[in-house]
Amino acid sequence: MSFQPPEGAGPPTPGPEQPTAGGWGGTPPAPGRSQPGWGPPPGVPGQQPPAGPPSTRPLRWLVIGGVVVLLCAIASIVRGATTIDTSDVRDLVEDPASVLEFQTDHPGSWSGKLEEGRYWVFAIGPNLIAEDFGSTPRDGFSAPELTVRGKDGTRITVDRPGEEVNVGGLDNDLVLVGEFRVRRTAEYQVVSKGGSPGIEQIGAGGTGALWDATKAIIGPVGWIILGVVLGLLSLALLAIALILWLVWRSRTP
Fold it and tell me: What's the pLDDT at 22?
């Protein structure tokens, strides 16, 4: 006995294909295995790929900057050390009156030629300046009476100083006690009397005499100080570069 399909019935229609892990109509993958294009990427889910070592460009620039600053510091110190005149320093510290135009005993007088210009007159003697107050004259200090005359008898007015300029030395101190102006170059006589008993001499010099003496010292000393500051800056840059290098080494696989 055989089975016959009913009349009018066509061949059986296959059903729609269902997708599989291997594609439409493909062979299902074996358990525990994945096919290309399916599933997460290899590695731990959510983990970013490892980062590379940090850049060494900042490290190089710091080292170059530190070396350049160090060379500038050495050049500055060498320039200051080779241009300073130790004799000027010694004279100004030991005897500040040595930079004045003239000195004479007090009480007394001095006669000589003075160039046209403005002059400061200083009282000279030991312990004229109070040690506790830097350049302040001691209590009870009184300025001497000064007289300046030309060779023809013309009297020049000696004014009270408009500035307070006092210099302390190892042996003697200088206290500014008066100023006058010479209108023309000629012979003049300066007479001093009275004042504090501690005054041993008086001296006069141009208003720029002390500045000219200190300027020869300040310039080289300034170069030396600048060199020290630059040297400290270079050490700081190199220290930062060393720290960055150690961090870079610790992060390099």
Answer: 47
Q: 239 is written with which tokens?
A: 């220290």
| Distance separating alpha carbons of residues 116 and 112, to the nearest angstrom | 13
Q: Are 144 and 177 in contact (CB under 8 A)?
A: yes
Distance CA 191, CA 108 (A): 6
The distance in angstroms from the start CA to the end CA of the chain is: 82
pTM across the whole model: 0.53
Q: Give the chain's radius of gyration (CA, Å).
A: 47
All residues at 6 or more sequence positions from 1 whose CB lies less than 8 Å from its CB, including other chains: none
User: Residue 186, SS3?
Assistant: strand
CA distances (Å), 219 to each of 79, 93, 95, 214, in order? 10, 16, 20, 9
Task: Report, as ranges of residue numbers, the positions in the chain whose pLDDT lies below 50.
Answer: 1, 3, 21-23, 34, 38
DSSP 8-state code for residue 22: T
Distance from C-alpha of 19 to C-alpha of 53, rounded to nearest angstrom: 46
